[in-house]
Design goal:
Blueprint: H1 3-12, E1 18-22, E2 27-35, E3 39-43, E4 51-55, E5 59-64
């Protein structure tokens, strides 16, 4: 995905779980909370209180997560 596609996918899924593939090969289910010019803040789509900031350059793809977890 391009940077603009990643931004669009994150923005259109704010506060909804998505699957993200990172450049290190890891994938994860996250919930994007905010998107800025350089990256985004997300939680881990779990009930904990941890949030993380990730630059767009560390993301390969973003897809909506339709699972019922």
């Amino acid at each position: 995905m391009t940077r603009d596609e990643i931004i669009g996918a994150l923005t259109s899924n704010l506060n909804k779980p998505v699957r993200v593939e990172f450049t290190d090969g890891n994938t994860g289910r996250i919930t994007p909370l905010t998107v800025d010019k350089e990256g985004f803040i997300h939680d881990l789509a779990t009930k904990d209180d941890m949030v993380f900031w990730v630059p767009f350059e560390e993301v390969v793809s973003v897809t909506p997560d339709e699972s019922d977890s």
